[in-house]
Specification:
The complex is a heterodimer. By secondary structure, chain A is an all-alpha fold. Chain A contains 5 helices and no strands. Classes of the chains: A mainly alpha, B alpha+beta.
Chain lengths: ~110, ~350
């Protein structure tokens, strides 16, 4: 079976963020702003409202791609932290037996 | 190979983006002798009939759909179109008409020409795919972005899912098979007759649409993309056995494709409001298993002939379900028979499901 890339999702995303080449002065990682997605989409939408999709700039689209990758990386990191925390309710230990829950000597 | 512009028109016809009232088109998958007898069966039709004949009548024969289901269809069609576009752009060698259709999405002639001759690099292809999706999800009627009622299947989650999915497939070991024509083995429509003739002498055919055929470990596999909002644990994959779509694709892969297919891989994408997860699993089917499935399906079609001749499709009350899993037509079946048609026309969307329409 092909390897399940979900197991190293953060590594895949980090690699993707670093691979996108830019001809500009700014580093791709500095431009990877997950919060800029809405602003970028607004700019794209303006071109579509005006009926000029050809005016959507490649630069804006690159930033959009980076933004989605950065957002996904952040989410994946948050999910990994959540998964590593013990579950609430049983102190993170083994599931209690009926005897333990009812405090009976079974 | 479906031109992208035709895909967009098909999606928009399915959704409310360009909705105009009018008569339904003719469904070419049905008999001209017995109008409610389906002759061309795909997995969607088979599954509807297996669940409940009344559900089958509402959805496949009459074309009713639960309100809001269009969002799932739209999302699915655009996801598949986007990944198909990516494959074509990176592999190249597509037709001149396909190349010429790309400019409608703001893809320059120079970029389209480069893609056609040499194929594009991964990131350049993703940028073109985003251009396509941004245009495809524009509601021209209201001059605004597509608005979806389903929070996990929105324009934003579509763009994000496509970017992340394509990043994932970029360097993987599961490589799209290249046909003898030089084209990638993606979005392959199939149809073949089976050993079943109706009482009026009409042949039954099976048809469908393979997402992709890919090479892995010197074998060929049919890869089928699935989206879900649920966890992709073992339980998720258990639903694919028994499953008529997997069985049909396994059968089709070996009948229609010139090279033996090892099996089906389910390529699952979990889509949440804020993120995605991905997981794949092989779903096996032996020849013995498929023989039994064929026998089951022929029995189903025999029942379809009887129901069509009687113009009566009975309810399967055990399939109605309840809560989040209830049949979307339960409100209809709960109403007195005289009230059902007005309710269907008032509340439910309508569209043709014709398995013979290639995508």
């Amino acid at each position: 079976m092909p390897s399940d890339p979900n197991s190293n999702l953060t590594a895949v995303l980090q690699g993707s963020l670093e691979s996108l080449e830019f001809t500009g002065e700014n580093s791709p990682l500095l431009e990877a702003d997950p919060n800029a997605i809405d602003e970028l989409l607004d700019r794209v939408n303006q071109n579509l409202i005006q009926g000029t999709p050809q005016n959507i700039s490649d630069d804006d689209l690159r930033k959009l791609v980076l933004g989605y990758r950065a957002k996904a990386l952040k989410w994946a990191q948050e999910e990994e932290i959540k998964a590593s925390k013990p579950k609430r309710g049983n102190g993170g230990g083994a599931k209690k037996t009926i005897g333990e829950i009812l405090n009976l000597d079974i | 190979m479906e031109a992208l512009v035709e895909t967009i028109e098909a999606v928009k016809a399915e959704t409310t983006l360009l909705a105009t009232p009018g008569a339904l088109a003719v469904n070419t998958s049905f008999s001209k002798i017995t109008p409610k007898l389906q002759l061309a069966w795909d997995s969607t039709s088979i599954k509807a009939a297996q669940k409940c004949w009344r559900l089958y009548e509402y959805t496949i024969i009459e074309g009713y759909r639960p309100p809001g289901e269009n969002a799932h269809l739209t999302f699915g069609i655009l996801l598949h179109s986007a990944t198909e576009l990516y494959e074509h752009l990176t592999i190249g060698k597509f037709s001149d008409s396909y190349r010429d259709s790309l400019h409608q999405f703001g893809i320059s002639e120079a970029t389209a020409a480069m893609a056609q001759t040499t194929g594009l690099a991964h990131d350049d292809a993703i940028i073109c795919v985003l251009r396509f999706l941004l245009c495809a999800t524009w509601d021209n009627k209201h001059n605004r972005p597509w608005v979806s009622p389903e929070p996990t299947k929105t324009r934003d989650t579509l763009l994000r899912t496509v970017v992340l999915y394509l990043d994932r497939v970029k360097d993987e070991s599961l490589k799209t098979f290249i046909l003898q024509s030089g084209k990638p083995a993606i979005e392959l429509s199939f149809r073949f007759p089976i050993d079943y003739v109706t009482i009026n002498g009409e042949t039954i055919i099976f048809c469908g649409h393979l997402d992709k055929v890919a090479e892995w470990n010197t074998e060929l596999w049919v890869v089928d993309k699935k989206t879900s909002k649920y966890d992709l644990q073992e339980n998720y994959f258990n639903q694919f056995t028994p499953d008529s779509q997997v069985s049909l694709y396994s059968l089709a892969g070996n009948i229609v494709f010139p090279i033996p297919i090892a099996g089906i891989i389910i390529d699952a994408i979990q889509i949440l409001v804020n993120g995605n997860r991905f997981r794949r699993k092989q779903i096996p089917r032996s020849a013995e298993y498929l023989e039994e499935w064929m026998q089951n399906t022929k029995t189903l079609i025999t029942q379809a002939e009887i129901n069509a001749a009687n113009d009566y499709f009975p309810m399967n009350e055990q399939s109605c379900g309840w809560g989040n899993n209830q049949c979307p037509f339960r409100p209809v079946c709960s109403t007195d028979p005289s009230g059902r048609k007005p309710l269907l026309d008032a509340v439910y969307d309508r569209g043709i499901w014709d398995p013979l329409q290639t995508r």
